[in-house]
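User: Could you write out the 3D structure of this protein bound to adenosine monophosphate? I've included everything you need below.
Assistant: Certainly. Input first, then the structure.
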Amino acid sequence: MSDQKKNVLSCIQPTGDIHLGNYLGAIKNWVDLQEDYNCTYGVVDYHSMTMPYKAKNLRENTWKMALQLLACGIQPENLFIQSLIPEHSELCWILGNLCSFGRLNLMTQFKDKTSQLKESDKDAFVSGGLFYYPVLQAADILIYHADFVPIGKDQVQHLELSRDIAQRFNHQFDKEYFTHPEPLFTKNTKILSLANPAKKMSKSLGEKHYVNIFGDEARIRKQVKSAVTDTGESEGISPGVQNLFDLLLASGKIDDHTSLMNDFNNDALRYSDLKNAVAEGLVVLCKPMKERYDEINFNKKEFKNRIKDSSSDIRKSAKKTLREVKEIVGILNPKD
Ligand code: AMP
């Protein structure tokens, strides 16, 4: 029987610990998609070279991210590490020639990241890799003929570039070879920093701004307890309080959400009740993942080997695509 499932592809940079924003905004969704799609998920370490980094940290963070993804529920056979599949970078070079300099120059993320670098140091080094990385992203997607890419609104422009490259390739070589990947917009839970709800939860803001889902229970409770609620500036529900309600919903505490929202609407909400419910919800949500992560860490070598094996299996389809692409564009394959 033929496999009718569509292909889903998504990747994440190895930034260190997975925080609650990453989990609720992206990874939980990846886990759920595995039910209905052929999913391929990558830890894209080459992408992390585009911004300043330390070699030792990169290697450590790559493994950490891969193992944490397993702890979150990603199946090992669906997971690869980008640098273990060199065909991505080879395809990137080929695709770069199907994408104009002007088109790349329109990418807003390059401008955003450049100004982020220049903010801390006006003479900061901005690499060519940072400019070129949307092409590597296109290679990551097209090499597996992905039908769908789960993305947030900030990635729409990059996916459009991948589609344009696929279209140009098919047109230039007069062959319907590449699939045009479609965005898969799922429920978008944007989690805000507990310490500053004016900002998105992010590691780059510093430790108190993100909840480490593998952190200990006491720390999670403490972070929720000291969450900023209402600064008195906004009318209606404040971003901090809305964020706590969103977290309650995301952690599956539907009944608590309904009853506390009722209290809020009747001006009877005690923030301490809301925080207690959120803390409880998050602890229950994170506990099984932390336990699984502890188990994985205990057998680290075995799990690393499983990821190496799955990368090697996934590499087979990357190799096939690259062989066919080289054939189409007139570049030699080893057996030619
Ligand atoms: P990053 O490491 O910031 O590139 O994020 C990796 C993934 O997690 C992306 O899909 C982001 O959209 C998602 N993500 C990161 N931070 C948050 C957040 N605070 N709320 C929701 N999703 C997030």
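Residues 12-13, 15, 21-22, 25-26, 152, 189-191, 200-202 surround adenosine monophosphate (CB under 6 Å).
User: Perfect, thank you.
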